[in-house]
Amino acid sequence: MSEQSDVLQGGPPPEAQPRWTVSRRAFLIGMATTGAALALGIPLGLPVLRRAAAGLTEGEAGGFARGNLEPLLWFEVYPDERVRVFVPKAEMGQGIHTALAQIAAEELEVAWERLEVLHASTSQASGDLRGTSGSMSVSTLYNPLRQAAATLREMLRAEAARLLDRPSADLVAREGVFELRGDSNTRLTYGELVAGGVDWQVPEAEVALKPPEAYRFIGRSLPRVDLAGKIIGQATCAYDARADGMLYGAAAHPPTIGARLLAARPGGAEGMPGVVKVVIDDGFAGVVAETRLQAWAARDALDVEWSEEHPWQQEELEDLVTVGGRGGVSIQRAGNALSALRCSTPIRAEYRSGMGAHATLEPQAALADIGAEGGRVWTSTQFETSVRSGVARALGMKPEQIEVIPTYLGGGFGRKIELDLVPSVAVQAARLSRAAGSPVHVGWDRQEEMRNGFVRPLTHHRLAASLDGQGSIAAMLHEQASGDALFGGFPPVVGKVLGFDFGSTRGGQIPYAIEHREVTAWRIPMPIPTGSWRGLGLMANMFALESFFDEVAHVAGADPLQFRLDHMPDDALGRRMRTALEAAAARAGWGNGLPEGRARGVACGIDGGTVVVEVAEVSLDRDAGRIRVHRVVAAVDPGRVINPDGATAQIEGSIVMGTSATLLEEITVKDGRVEAGNFDRYPLLRMAQAPDVETILLEAPDGKPRGLGEPAIGPIAAAIGNAFSALTGVRLRRLPMTPERVKGALAA
Amino acid sequence: MDITVNGQVYQVDSEPDRPLLWVLRDELALTGTKFGCGVGLCGSCEVHLDGNVARSCITMLSAVAGRAVRTIEGLADGTALHPVQQAFLDEQVPQCGWCMSGQMMRAAAFLEANPDPTEEEIASAMTSNLCRCGAYGRIRRAVAKAARSGDSGGGS
């Protein structure tokens, strides 16, 4: 299959893998085995560092196993001047490969067009700390990536100084060349430096990093590195992966939530046109055929018997996810909100949010080529190492026997994270490939995608607040219940120990300066598989908190913007939030008149240190019950911005996806089955319904980069609901705000 | 039967009721045309048939006989990008990119028929194509820019 590698994204041929040795300061130095080249890697995972440290203190030269010498991230410099950086991060449209390239280029001083970013396969790099989620890629890699790039540059500089016989301080690095200061004829390129056989040494001391004033790549809107292929239809996602002799597979999926395969027979599948093999073993039934449509047809003709499970109804699930009873865990507490609220007549409200699908436009897909000794799997995944362990477990193999080669993702949004709760397309492809003895591609149809994934969980919120004599909030309580947003993927013991799911509570804390405030969370595992969805609990929690904050402002007779400013804490975060509120309000024209039939709403929040303020402008078609969001102004402060245009795109995308989830999207369950099977029953926001988004990027003075892929999805539902309330005087306390619910609320 | 895709004639040994999408992707290895919904709801699979936009997931092979199919792989003129592609690149439109072949094919056919559209005409022409990453604002800008560039790249 190696001849196919060139058409597949995700890594060089395996023979180009460097052989690593450990240097001082725990860097890994490698010489690529094909031709001269220099590679420098960093082990980031704690276990790797620990093993490295143990090896060094025990003085064992080369004293640890080959398998331990796997970097999380590394550079390769080639004699032809190309530089490759291998990263442990999936490109799903968020522009992470571009951002990481900019961070690397900054210290490496390499020509931008010579730098190539690749997502390393599981056999190339360490499994520790891999995965792409939580808007954490830039913030976690910003320092180590610059440190590795700077170290590599200094190694090259030392060699250039030796060859040119000049002091290294007299050499200037720029665009992949060392040049003698004041003499542009005395120069050596990075390619020339690595072409010779050199005994590379990592510098003794930690290399000093550039001051931000000198940045040339970080902070610029450089074009995305993945778009050239995407513009001409040549970027490869898992659904596009191909191999010589490839067959197509499909597997039977449970008809209802929780159903297990009791028995299966080939039934009508055997002998259908194109069917090559029917595979039934170990709770699995699938088919392999010559074409995809033949595989899908044969899948539907399998004679399968499923366990009878409770026929869950939507109302039962909603009753289940309700605040109260035992098991509530306090996740934020200042003063004594409960007793403060008892001594007053509090303002109270309840909020709910429905279930949501990721609806990635690329459905689940994987190509597997598995033999008796193991094999390779190409798939669109945010967590390639859990795909590897899942496939290995299903096949009774060791993880090292499986190489998972990540492709680009046709959308991720949290869905392309492996959860044991739901069928794995990679496992299906691997089982079928092993049974058929050929590469097998499995691609789900839309109905499989809609009904066999995990969903954003239901939430329920009870809020209460009281005002003091001056019209400020004296006490505020947020009680929150949610299905799992994160723990679906964790061993059960984690949930037992913590008692609450810290993914579900994301965005649920009260960010305001209120003397008595408390947030209590109930973790309610649901019978339907639930899991991560862009921002996890962020949108649901901020919808409840920020809508309720507006309700309290209304009772206090205060302007919602001013009420927020008045309750901002006087600390660094509060000051950043104040700046963002003022910037968004100024751009949106807060307080200025609007055409008849339009109104504005504001909402804000903090996620992972990123500050977000959104002002939405809406109108309403009363007869149809349809809310139209015309314009959203977003002021976002993520600290240091690596690529302003990429950051803007993430904010625009979060707001459009959040508007879609706010107005249209809901997964409902009937008779134990997800009702929607396609976009007719699960509509997504379309262009004619989408708001114009105006983004203001603010940069906190501390210079630290923070997350951007999710935070802006947090306040949007509340901003829309607050605008609706300003327009109509009616409060919407449930997501999504479908036409039926809007009409119901207006009629009540 | 023979089908003509991007000016090239291919002999295809496939059932006449097979959707063009799967012939393009699986027989001809032209995977730039994407599968999204399979029932004509999302637009990810859009191609040109004799210059008009068509959803290849619900276009049967038999309906393609004697007609010119153009896919994203044939939108550029060699290495020279079509003005729509250039505008999508300039405006940095795609995020994950999965819907983008369909978006660009629709935009190219639309501008061919209406070289000087209003904002409203652009939104109404493009609203049939879903983008989960939420790049609608950029798509609108890029289509307007491609129109302004004055040359929508000739027919297929």
Report on the architecture of this protein:
- The complex is a heterodimer of chains A (748) and B (156).
- Chain A has 748 residues and is of the alpha+beta class.
- The N and C termini of chain A lie far apart (65 Å).
- Chain B has a 5-stranded mixed β-sheet with strand order 2-1-5-3-4, covered by helices on one side.
- In chain B, helix 2 (83-90) crosses helix 5 and helix 4 packs across helix 5.
- Chain B has helices at 20-27, 83-90, 100-113, 119-126, 136-148, and strands spanning 2-5, 8-11, 46-49, 52-55, 68-70.
- Chain B folds into 2 domains: 2-74, Ubiquitin-like (UB roll) (Roll), CATH 3.10.20.30; 83-148, DNA polymerase, domain 1 (Orthogonal Bundle), CATH 1.10.150.
- Chain B starts with a strand and ends in an 8-residue tail after the last helix.
- The interface between A and B is large, with 60 and 55 residues.
Task: Please tally the β strands of chain A and state the result.
Answer: 30
Helical region count of chain A? Answer: 18
Helix-residue proportion of chain A: 25-40%
Tell me, what is the CATH class of the largest domain in chain A? Answer: Alpha Beta
CATH superfamily of the largest domain in chain A: Aldehyde oxidase/xanthine dehydrogenase, molybdopterin binding domain
Average of pLDDT of chain B: 95
Q: Can you tell me the number of structural domains of chain B?
A: 2
Largest sheet of chain A: 7 strands, mixed
* Biggest chain-to-chain interface with counts: A-B, 60 and 55 residues
- For the termini of chain A, the CA-CA separation is 65 Å
